[in-house]
Amino acid sequence: MRYRARLGTQQYVFGTLREVLAKASPLRSGDCLAGVAAASEQERVAARMALAEVPLSRFLEEELIPYEKDEVTRLIFDQHDKAAFATVADMTVGEFRDWLLSEEASSEALKKLRMGLTPEMVAAVSKLMRNQDLVIVARKCEVVTAFRNTLGLRGHMATRLQPNHPTDDPFGIAAVILDGLILGAGDAVIGVNPASDSVPDLVRLNHVLAEIIEKGKIPTQTCVLTHITNTMEAMRLGAPVDLVFQSIGGTEDTNRSFGITLAILDEAYEMALALQRGVVGNNVMYFETGQGSALSASAHHGVDQQTCEARAYAVARRYQPLLVNTVVGFIGPEYLYDGKQITRAGLEDHFCGKLLGLPMGCDICYTNHAEADQNDMDNLLVLLGVAGINFIITVPGADDVMLNYQSTSFHDALAVRDLLGLRRAPEFEKWLDEQGWVDRHGRVLGAERTLKKLSFSFWPAMEAAGYG
Prior knowledge:
The chain is globular, with a radius of gyration of 22 Å. Strands 7-6-5-12-11-10-9-8 form an 8-stranded parallel β-sheet. It is built from 22 helices and 14 strands. It has 468 residues and is of the alpha/beta class. The protein has 2 domains: 3-140, Orthogonal Bundle (Annexin V, domain 1), CATH 1.10.220.70; 145-448, TIM Barrel (Alpha-Beta Barrel). The protein has helices at 17-24, 29-34, 41-52, 71-78, 82-85, 93-100, 107-113, 119-126, 131-140, 170-182, 199-216, 228-236, 252-257, 262-275, 293-296, 305-317, 339-355, 374-387, 410-420, 426-435, 447-452, 460-464, and strands at 3-7, 10-14, 145-146, 150-151, 158-161, 189-192, 222-224, 244-247, 285-289, 323-327, 360-363, 391-394, 399-400, 405-406. Helix 8 crosses helix 17 and helix 12 (228-236) runs parallel beside helix 14 (262-275). One of its GO terms (biological process) is amino acid metabolic process. Its main location: other.
């Protein structure tokens, strides 16, 4: 089947669904690098016109990557719910866009539809949408998950407290955790990217994090973001693992480049469930994704980077995760060149993930060689806050000294919460109130007043380090 559109006197023909999807994508450097982008704005418009006429059912007939060669494709097709799809089965991509923006597409209707949609369908409709449209539809999608607290409730936005340290020094990590807590951060997770892959070091870090939240009776969860096989070994050694982390991609070859398969993810998921460490729920997985990962692994199979990203969400959805976040600008300008491309990608990823039923967050970030700055991150943060994002990443001063990239800060989260009236996870906010660290509106009181009210020994070693 060929896909066609006419602009004036010129007819454009696209040979495959994969081609029309790629050429309908907004301009981004990664698709140009891969050689799949439209050659001109005219061709991009023509591709969108052709895509708008494609029946949604076509995505169940034409595989972008062959079923027999890719386990992610098999997962997508095998988990598709035909009964849920029936609501939109007779629509084209263009008609689906219009329906999503209508009042008929209520939060409840979108929830019932989730398992009837494939990643390719939601990627396709996103390509026909303006940024405003992506925000409007994503805002309708409520995805609630729970472990020691409840995340994703409407009107709430959580934060991951990211206390990375270049040498995994426990004093430095603990100091950043205290800094984040007194600024009201950490309800999504206290998550450390370790500098070392040594399993004994990872076990030690898990104990450090567990001791902090146990001594403070803090209603949040912890995670050491190492490779999933390291976490599995740590669990076998008795480490107090809350969440199992893994970076994932949208093709089997991408995931193999990460050293994982669905079978490995299955095993880790069952191990984490068996620990039963959750209090109010047992969503135990934490996944990170990012546009460009498939291309950087030469594993994209000619599929554009945004559609590959959406396919990764099918992998995540299999495990009912507590958290999923796109690390939107981390891979670099080879894939998302500037602030405009990063902003668009962040909105796309959030929209696609939420429509598929995932608890989406975002590391609103950029590397120092990208054509972007903190103002671009401010813009994306506000847009995602309006769109109902489940959580964002926060680091001291928006500068991660271990991973050497720019993100958002504890103070940025305070600003967008105050601006949009967003609350923290209810259990976590209640804890902050019990500590006397926030006022009745959930606003933090500031470090000087907060430290005077520190009602628990944060960690014995903190006292020796001068933070007690």
